[in-house]
């Protein structure tokens, strides 16, 4: 233990001498490096130059347009009451029975809920045909008011074919009727052959109103006047089986002829 004491004394002496040389002052500490404030931008900086954008086409690209065919408004069975002018579903045919006949002197037009037939020419047979449908079996009716002279006829037609012919039921204002086969000849002329004829007291003669109806049902041809069945006969000679329906008014050698039709009705027989 005595040997350690001189050593401890020497170490203590060296420490005291070192403190004395430093003047007893605490060595200065280095200040921390200055810190800069962190700024968080509220909005991102805008670029100084706007990058070019892709040029838009001046014309819109073509698109394929799909069009639908118009749906026909024509009806197969209906009552035409002439509240509007006749549509394109009706075709006109005129036949003349004299070299002096002039179809241009005939007007047929819808007026105030009636189809008015006004003739200023003799021997003109003026037809209208409903071209929207063809019928095998059909019933056709009309209500007609005779406002002119008594010498005229009203006709109802079935199984009309413009290239072949048709069946025609003529009802004269004098009380007679005919059922005819009208044939279209090679030169376009029309020839008429009688199928049946007769007279009927059911016809209101003179300036009066009549309702006429026909049926074309299989081989049977029927005529009805003011609700009475006048005649029904089989027809096998000409053998028409289908076609359009139509109505006609004919003038003869007496004028004026004026017919007002209240309605035309097409129905099943």
Compact overview of the structure:
This protein has 1 helix and 15 strands, in the order H-E-E-E-E-E-E-E-E-E-E-E-E-E-E-E. The chain has one helix at residues 4-21; strands at 78-80, 90-96, 106-111, 114-119, 124-135, 138-146, 152-161, 165-172, 176-184, 190-199, 209-217, 220-225, 228-234, 243-251, 257-267. Strands 1, 3, 4, 6, 11, 12, 13 and 15 form an 8-stranded antiparallel sheet that branches. Strands 2-5-14-7-8-9-10 form a 7-stranded antiparallel sheet, with no helix packed on it.
Provide the β-strand percentage band: over 45%
CATH H-level superfamily title? Exo-inulinase, domain 1
What Rg, in angstroms, do the CA atoms define?
54 Å
Give the overall average pLDDT. 83
Question: Strand-and-helix sequence, N→C?
Answer: HEEEEEEEEEEEEEEE
Number of domains as seen in the coordinates: 1
Distance between the termini: 151 Å
- Structural class of the helices, strands and pairings? mainly beta
What's the helical proportion of residues? under 10%
**If you consult CATH, what is the topology?**
Jelly Rolls
What tags apply to this protein structure?
single chain, 269 residues, mainly beta, Jelly Rolls, eight-stranded antiparallel sheet, seven-stranded antiparallel sheet, 1 helix, 15 strands, globular, disordered N terminus
Explain what the structure shows:
- This protein is mainly beta and 269 residues long.
- It has a single domain, classed as Sandwich (Jelly Rolls).
- 7% of the residues lie in helices and 45% in strands.
- The strands form two sheets. Strands 1, 3, 4, 6, 11, 12, 13 and 15 form an eight-stranded antiparallel β-sheet that branches. Strands 2-5-14-7-8-9-10 form a seven-stranded antiparallel β-sheet, with no helix packed on it.
- A hairpin with a 2-residue loop joins strand 11 and strand 12 (220-225).
- It is globular.
């Amino acid at each position: 233990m005595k040997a350690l004491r001189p050593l401890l004394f020497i170490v203590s002496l060296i420490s005291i001498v070192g403190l004395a040389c430093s003047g007893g002052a605490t060595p200065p500490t280095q200040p921390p490096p200055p810190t800069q404030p962190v700024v968080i931008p509220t909005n991102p900086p805008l670029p100084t130059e706007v990058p070019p954008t892709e040029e838009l086409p001046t014309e819109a690209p073509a698109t394929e347009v799909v069009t639908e065919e118009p749906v026909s408004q024509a009806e197969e069975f209906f009552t035409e009451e002439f509240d509007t002018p006749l549509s394109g579903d009706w075709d006109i045919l005129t036949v003349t029975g004299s070299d002096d006949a002039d179809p241009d002197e005939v007007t047929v037009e819808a007026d105030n809920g009636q189809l008015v037939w006004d003739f200023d020419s003799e021997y003109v047979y003026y037809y209208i045909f409903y071209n929207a449908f063809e019928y095998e079996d059909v019933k056709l009716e009309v209500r007609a008011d005779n406002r002119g002279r008594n010498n005229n006829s009203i006709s109802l037609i079935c199984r009309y074919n413009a290239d072949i012919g048709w069946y025609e039921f003529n009802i004269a204002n004098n009380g007679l009727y005919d059922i005819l086969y009208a044939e279209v000849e090679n030169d376009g002329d029309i020839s008429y052959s009688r199928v049946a004829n007769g007279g009927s007291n059911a016809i209101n003669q003179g300036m009066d109103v009549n309702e006429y109806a026909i049926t074309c049902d299989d081989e049977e041809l029927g005529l009805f006047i003011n609700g009475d069945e006048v005649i029904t006969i089989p027809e096998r000679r000409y053998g028409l089986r289908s076609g359009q329906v139509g109505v006609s008014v004919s003038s003869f050698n007496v004028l004026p002829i004026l017919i007002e039709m209240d309605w035309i009705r097409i129905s099943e027989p």
